[in-house]
Structure prediction request, 226 residues.
Amino acid sequence: DAGITQSPRHKVTETGTPVTLRCHQTENHRYMYWYRQDPGHGLRLIHYSYGVKDTDKGEVSDGYSVSRSKTEDFLLTLESATSSQTSVYFCAITPGVGFTEAFFGQGTRLTVV
Amino acid sequence: GEDVEQSLFLSVREGDSSVINCTYTDSSSTYLYWYKQEPGAGLQLLTYIFSNMDMKQDQRLTVLLNKKDKHLSLRIADTQTGDSAIYFCAESEASGGSYIPTFGRGTSLIVHP
Prediction:
């Protein structure tokens, strides 16, 4: 299995609190992505990174920020969590452009109450 | 923007063939993918097809691409109970050079013994 780890795997938090999810990889892949998965919506891209300190927005980026200070870690932050951000969050990594060699993490189930 | 549509459920008997269908709208799609998601896990790439191909076969999996109708299908021969999972269709094109795929909502395949 590819070396990609998400933490935490499960989290329950209160509305209005900040939350940070971590994606850690040991593959030295250049690209990292954060998706959310919701029933009826499939996977939707939140943000992605194409290198250290290089990030860009996806289709559902409102309410989320990201940081990548080193190759192996990509952090997703909810500055002030809302119930609409209750979801399963997946991190993915690719060595280059395209998803022919993509690996996904196990997911983080976040519940905002 | 791009749109990828799949039926939500498919139920088959063990040993039969399964055919999961997908339609997409982007005529400039370059890669089309099939991913599998088992319960509680991340997505796993099953196979992909380049847009200049009509068919790709890999053991029990056959992918058919009809570019004219923008229709992609995944056939699983001799379906087993272990094939029960959610199957995601995805397509990508070179938007800004990123090739980040757009995912469908997923088809839940249920295999009855």
About this structure: Chain B has a mean pLDDT of 91.
